[in-house]
Write a structure and sequence with these properties.
CATH architecture of one domain in chain B: 2-Layer Sandwich
Number of strands of chain B: 6
Distance between the termini of chain A: 72 Å
Largest sheet of chain A: 3 strands, antiparallel
Helix content of chain A: 40-55%
Largest sheet of chain B: 3 strands, antiparallel
Radius of gyration of chain A: 25 Å
Number of domains of chain A: 1
Number of strands of chain A: 9
Shape of chain B: elongated
Largest interface: A-B, 61 and 43 residues
Strand content of chain A: 5-15%
CATH architecture of chain A: Orthogonal Bundle
Radius of gyration of chain B: 27 Å
Shape of chain A: elongated
Oligomer: heterodimer
Order of helices and strands of chain A: HEEEHHHHHEEHHHHHEHHHEEEHHHH
CATH class of one domain in chain B: Alpha Beta
């Protein structure tokens, strides 16, 4: 025979009231990542939440560490070029150029004008590619899917151009110490012109979809504001620094590759919030288009590698196959590496994400004694523990998207 | 010369604050794109156009007379950044090719580990015989790790025959021009 017990639960409202008193002041630890769609790679954030407000945010990095700097000590300068593709893998061409320029600086080697123009083209196309992704993904982080699709359509066209120029869509490995791997193919410049003509209407379309969109504006304006002082103190570079109102662009302030010969504007923000960083990237794409037009109009004839650097750049294929001296030279440069004098040099290039620096120490010969890489994404992420606290949980995605970092370069 | 330009931030107008113009713009953009030709490719039925000099799967090639071009100098093995290539040099058979035996070498074994290969194209670039080529195959698959290691026979099968782009020796050039395949 079943028995029934009657129990009392009392006044629910009163009990909830007591519990509220108990819960006050207690925070919740939340782990975001390392495998999370909005962290854009393997970034892990240890956040502490008070309700919906973040009180503490600590980035945990190193999940993509490959030891690139150590690897570089065990191979010739040219063999390291494919590894630079994998730093900022959204703009591999710009990394290739920065690395080659650093080693050439140490060797005091001047590349011909045509090579410089090709490298400027590469850098600016890489900038467009990286910023298009940055804008598209930022839109997606703020809830605007459409923009991502349109920017990716344009990047697909860019990758087709890269494929034709370098032989690969993604891992370009295009530069060599003292030049580039091959000259630009016939008709390629015309196709680049077609592309940049096509990318401007798409930018206008993105502008229409995002810039005056109230949902987007509400989610980005006043969010993640980096002050001028903070931006400098944390060592930010690139668009993140300029959005905070600091007028620093290495292409303008320390011109390399003949950037001083091209007319372009360096956009600078006023507020330093997420919206400013978005506006800045959109404007930089337009300026890159402007630079590319000038390069195409003025591209000089000549050699695409330093012909006089006989101990640095391998001779062309037809000479290797017909001349004994060139064949020996090819064997020497391949096995011993490009001969770089002893010394040390630091070179920074204005990459899409910021200043990418290579510090090369050489004891002579074809292998670096030490190679230090300064990645802009690493510095951009260091500001997170100062920037994120005080914001709502949902703002994390927007802030991360606006900083536009890439973990391959941060962890390297 | 580069100049600095401060980015303007215009506040939203009243109409824009009501969301209505954005809805219209958004719909217009979407419908406009709906009428455009699709840019996607129905892979694998449709295949992308592979440009010349594409860096696909590395292969070994033979010359038009069916001879192995590779002389196993091992320069590609040396330059390969991920160390994907392994070569065992061997002798050329003196009976079948008396001209080349004891003059050149040929690979006894030639392996490219496609699990390691990063398609950088350095092997093709340094090859003094134009024997190794990265051709247009871009998708590889296999059921086991062993299957992904391309052996010599597989490499020649993938590579096929390529005419000499450059004549290495004057003798070879003269023979080719003179219509004599037995050079």
């Amino acid at each position: 025979m079943a028995t029934t017990n009657e129990i009392s639960i009392g006044d629910l409202g009163a009990r909830a009231g007591e519990a509220e008193e108990e819960l006050k002041g207690e925070s919740m630890a939340l782990n975001i990542g390392p495998s999370h769609p909005t962290t854009h790679g393997v970034l892990r954030l240890l956040a502490e939440l008070d309700g919906d407000i973040i009180t503490k945010c600590e980035p945990v990095i190193g999940y993509l560490h490959r030891g690139d700097e150590k690897i570089a000590e065990n191979m010739t300068y040219n063999q390291f070029v494919p590894y630079t593709d994998r730093l900022d893998y959204l703009a591999p061409l710009a990394n290739n150029v920065a690395f080659a320029m650093a080693v050439e600086k140490l060797a005091a080697l001047e590349v011909p004008e045509r090579c410089q123009a090709i490298r400027v083209l590469c850098c600016e196309l890489a900038r467009i590619s990286s910023h298009l992704l940055g804008i598209g993904v930022f839109g997606m982080d703020a809830g605007a899917w459409t923009v991502f699709m349109y920017t990716f359509t344009e990047r697909e066209k860019l990758y087709t151009l890269f494929e034709e120029l370098t032989g690969a869509r993604f891992t370009t490995s295009y530069t060599r110490i003292g030049g580039v791997a091959r000259d630009i193919p016939e008709g390629w410049l015309g196709r680049v012109t077609d592309f940049i003509n096509g990318v401007l209407p798409v930018l206008d379309e993105i502008d229409k979809l995002l810039t005056r969109n109230r949902i987007f504006v509400d989610r980005t304006q006043g969010i993640g504001t980096i002050s001028r002082e903070d931006a400098i103190a944390y060592g930010l570079t690139g668009p993140n620094l300029r959005a905070s109102g600091v007028d620093l662009d290495l292409r303008k302030d320390k011109p390399y590759l003949g950037y001083e010969n091209y007319d372009f504007d360096v956009p600078v923000g006023t507020t330093g919030d997420c919206y400013d960083r978005y506006l800045l990237r959109a404007e930089e794409v337009r300026q890159s288009v402007c630079i590319i037009r000038q390069v195409i109009d003025t591209i000089p004839d000549g050699s695409f590698y330093a012909e006089d650097a006989k101990r640095i750049f391998s001779p062309p294929k037809e000479k290797v196959l017909t001349s004994m001296e060139a064949l020996i030279q090819n064997f020497m440069i391949t096995t011993e590496g490009p001969q770089i004098p002893a010394g040390e040099a630091y070179f920074e290039a204005e990459n899409p994400k910021g200043a990418l620096g290579f510090y090369v120490v050489s004891k002579g010969g074809g292998v670096p004694y030490r190679l230090k890489i300064r990645g802009p994404s690493f510095c951009s992420l260091s500001i997170l523990d100062k920037l994120v606290p005080g914001h709502y949980m949902t703002d994390i995605t927007v802030i991360l998207g606006s900083l536009d970092f890439v973990m391959g370069e941060c962890d390297r | 010369m580069a100049t600095t330009k401060v980015i303007e931030r215009k506040p939203l107008t009243f109409a824009e604050k009501t969301f209505l113009p954005q809805i219209a713009t958004g719909l217009k953009t979407t419908f406009g794109n709906m009428l455009k030709k699709p840019i996607t490719l129905q892979y694998p039925e449709e295949r992308p156009v592979i440009p010349e000099n594409y860096r696909g799967v590395p292969t070994l090639v033979k010359d038009p007379n069916g001879r192995e071009k590779c002389v196993s100098c091992q320069l590609c093995e040396f330059v390969c950044p991920p160390k994907a290539i392994r070569i065992t040099p061997g002798e050329i058979d003196a009976e079948s090719e008396p001209d080349r035996a004891h003059v050149e070498k040929a690979p006894q074994e030639f392996e490219i580990n496609m699990l390691r290969c990063i398609y950088c194209g350095f092997c093709e670039e340094v090859c003094p015989e134009e024997a190794i080529y990265l051709q247009d195959v871009f998708s590889l698959s296999g059921y086991s790790r062993e299957e992904m290691i391309n052996k010599k026979a597989k490499l020649y099968e993938l590579g096929g025959t390529l005419p000499d782009k450059h004549y290495k020796w004057d003798k070879k050039k003269a023979a080719e021009l003179g219509g004599n395949p037995e050079h």
